[in-house]
Amino acid sequence: MIYFDYAATCPIDDMALKVYNEAAKSYYGNTVSLHDQGTTASALLEHCRRTLADQAGVKKEGIYFTSGGTESNHIGLSVLAKAREGKHIITAQAEHSSVHYTLEKLANEGYSITKIPFTEEGIVNLEALEAAIRKDTAVVSIQLVNGEIGTLQPVNAIYFICQKWGIFFHSDCIQAFGKVDLTKYTKYMDSFSISSHKIYGPKGVGAVYLTPPISIHPDLLTGSHEKGVRAGTVNVPGIAAFTAAAQENVSQLENHQKHLITLNSAFKQAIFSVQDKLKFVGNTHEDASIIGLLLSGIEGQWAMLEANRKGYAISTGSACTLHEHEPARTLLAMGFSGETAKTFVRISFGKQTTIADVQGLADCLIDMLTVTNQP
After folding, report:
1. Which residues pair with 82 in a beta bridge?
2. With CB atoms 3.0 to 4.6 Å apart as the test, which of 79, 144, 246, 310 could cross-link to 176 if both were Cys?
3. d(C-alpha 234, C-alpha 41), whole Å
């Protein structure tokens, strides 16, 4: 099976796996225990916190380790919402499901939620965003990189709108970390979320940044771990492996980006012969690892299954919403009809992807489109 679903999850790097095993064997103490084994584990945890903060360009005091991107988004949004008096939150229609689920919870607690559409280019509509601001708006939450079509959102412009109105800004950076230089953007954010398994680290690990000194009121009063921000014993081996994967990917960011751009261009060239039978979605791709496609006359679900049968793993959008069998949120946010959105597939490249892999997938899709669209 040739893998083209890196936007959903990545295989763990050998280096990260080695670090995980070593940390699990040697740093197994509870980080809040006062004996030497606990102190050693705590020292490793704080080293990881400093290192990850450096990779993201923020203060280590604002980094809190979590169980992954979903929990990070939940904590970031919940903390910012409760740190303001207003009970109105603005987000985009195309946000990840973890953001929407958190906002549903907050809505049940009395918050009002406004969801902004995308433009035809796959960018959040800034005019609609500013027009939606009210006196009681507390938080704006917009992702940095869209996980279905790879468009980079104008977070600097969003930040200045938020500053103008005295509003907190949270950003889901899970698709962005390790693919773009996050340090260029984190200065515009009051909170952001990142996840380990998107950058070749282990699953079940992530982090949220909350800019000091935001007042933190956690959902669970858990006591000592991570300053009481979340529940549960800290996953030191997972955090160590996450940090190692982050170091590896950030240090190789320029080379990785060049590789992804090469793959992106190669795919578009390889599939050029059927350009009249497909449509590339989104025009401003900073993240070259993701390509969104609409396939003429073919439902994305069928195309995904047929590609799988031929040995290629692609997807029809975010893995966290596929079980719902609904069209990709991003396409609906851009104004496409539900029927058109059902023809969407997502292709995402990774470090292990080769030009030969890309050519093979293009040939597979060309065959599908040619057979389906025969007169």
Report:
1. none
2. 144
3. 10
For position 118, what pLDDT does the model report?
A: 96
Q: Which of 10, 162, 320, 364 is catalytic?
A: 320
Amino acid 227: pLDDT = 75
Global pTM exceeds 0.85: yes
How far apart are the C-alpha atoms of 98 and 141, rounded to whole Å? 12
Q: CA-to-CA distance for 215 and 235, rounded, in angstroms?
A: 25
CA dist 296 and 120 (Å) reads 18
Low-confidence ranges of the chain (pLDDT < 50): 322
Question: What local confidence, expressed as pLDDT, does residue 5 receive?
Answer: 97
Distances (CA, A) of 68 to 156, 196, 207, 238, 269: 25, 7, 7, 11, 36
d(CA 79, CA 218) in angstroms, rounded, equals: 7
Distances (CA, A) of 115 to 146, 329, 351: 15, 12, 34
Q: Which residue has the tokens 């290192």?
A: 51
Distances (CA, A) of 272 to 7, 102, 198, 280, 363: 23, 41, 29, 11, 11
pLDDT at 215: 72
Per the annotation, the verdict on 320 as an active-site residue is yes
Three-state secondary structure readout of the chain: CEECECCCCCCCCHHHHHHHHHHHHHCCCCCCCCCHHHHHHHHHHHHHHHHHHHHHCCCHHHEEEECCHHHHHHHHHHHHHHCCCCCEEEEECCCCHHHHHHHHHHHHCCCEEEEECECCCCCECHHHHHHCCCCCEEEEECCCECCCCCEECCHHHHHHHHHHHCCEEEEECCCCECCECHHHCHHHCCEEEEECHHHCCCCCCEEEEECCCCCCCCCCCCCCHHHHCCCCCCCHHHHHHHHHHHHHHHHCHHHHHHHHHHHHHHHHHHCHHHHHHEEEECCCECCCCEEEEEECCCCHHHHHHHHHHCCEECECCCCCCHHHCCCCHHHHHCCCCHHHHCCEEEEECCCCCCHHHHHHHHHHHHHHHHHHCCC
